[in-house]
Write a structure and sequence with these properties.
This protein is α+β, with helices and mostly antiparallel strands. It is built from 3 helices and 9 strands; from the N terminus they run ααββββββαβββ. The N and C termini lie far apart (127 Å). The C terminus is likely disordered.
Length: 307
């Protein structure tokens, strides 16, 4: 007599299958993350190349000078930040899409640039990812770092914080202590820094200098800072003390700043223009006050008739 065999999986067989799936997933997730990171880095490299090409195009009409060295006819002065220098190229209509000034896993613009000729909404605080070496020209040495990812400070050589890898914060690096650097000859690459933890600078080369100081012949250069604004800043440092509040101060001052002379502080950090901030008076109600109580006259019913 034949008996039917149970076709269901045993507990051991299910555990084996689950274990194999878990092992494959643990191998696939890091590989996918690595591929995604490399793809984002390539997008950042392409953006840096487009920025350098735009700088070269600008220099052709301005005696080989880059926008940070040319007075802006709209503002009357020269650029004080990388945002100002790059916005100048938008105003000159050399760049029509501000998204090239962003980077995946970093600061990204919204491509809302406003109306000509000022394009006042272009590269607002928090919409530019790239710092720039100031005072350079199209004829500067080819290995001079000209465009690079925003550093922690505006010193020379710049420094980054490898502990912020993967975060949208000032001075962050890619995983493994790497950043994207674009040079004056048009080459752009992902380069390893001097370390993978903490504050790190460019990798030291034979002879004791790094790629930044070697290109500048050990002469400190000016770094145009990035205007961050409030988003993603957290407790990160302020680059070079540059504009960091997302715009000009309001008419009532900035939170956290000492009040102006003759103005006392009010709750929330804003100074009050009155000699002293008095408590708010109670709001007047629109409902009319009740009438005073009057006694009700009781009329007695009398059998006499009224004449």
């Amino acid at each position: 007599m034949k008996t039917k065999r149970n076709q269901a999986f045993t507990l051991i067989e299910l555990l084996v299958v689950i274990t194999i799936i878990a092992i494959l997933a643990s191998l696939a997730v890091p590989a996918f993350t690595m591929v995604q990171t490399q793809g984002n880095q390539m997008k950042g490299v392409n953006n840096a190349k487009q920025i350098i090409l735009s700088l070269k195009q600008f220099s052709k009409d301005n005696n080989s000078q880059y926008p940070d060295s040319v007075p802006n006819p709209l503002s009357g002065g020269t650029a004080q930040s990388a945002n100002d220098a790059f916005r100048f190229m938008i105003q000159e209509q050399i760049v029509t899409d501000e998204r090239i000034f962003g980077c995946p896993a970093g600061y990204t613009p919204d491509n809302v640039i406003g109306q000509p000729p000022n394009y006042g909404n272009a590269l607002m605080p928090g919409e530019n990812h790239w710092a720039m070496t100031g005072g350079q020209t199209d004829t500067s040495v080819g290995n001079m770092p000209i465009v690079f990812e925003n550093p922690v400070n505006a010193g020379w050589p710049p420094q980054w914080n490898a502990d912020l890898a993967g975060q949208v914060k000032p001075g962050r690096t890619w995983t493994g202590g790497k950043i994207i650097i674009g040079r004056n000859d048009g080459s752009v690459s992902v380069e390893a820094l001097s370390g993978k933890r903490g504050m790190v600078g460019p990798k030291i080369m034979p002879g004791g200098m790094d790629s930044f100081t070697q290109a500048a012949q050990n002469i400190p250069q000016r770094v145009l800072p990035v205007v961050y604004g409030n988003q993603g800043q957290g407790t990160g440092p302020n680059i070079g003390g540059a504009m960091n509040n997302g715009g000009p101060p309001s008419a009532f001052g900035n939170p956290g700043l000492p009040p102006a002379p003759g103005m006392s502080p009010a709750p929330g950090g804003f100074p009050c223009r009155l000699p002293a901030c008095s408590p708010r008076r109670p709001r007047r109600s629109w409902w009319p006050a009740p009438l005073p109580h009057r006694p009700v006259m009781a009329w007695a019913h009398s059998p006499q008739r009224l004449c």
